[in-house]
Amino acid sequence: MARAPNYDQERKERDRQKAAKKAEKLAAKVSARERSKPEDEAGSETETAK
Prior knowledge:
mainly alpha
């Protein structure tokens, strides 16, 4: 016999996977942006933030 579908659990699992993928992409974008930044620009941002 087939099991009854648990739609709520399946939806939560898809949403969790989607959020994890989105966070991974965002982290990759941020690290790529940091790597492409010149040193002078990175130093001036920390000074203006203080």
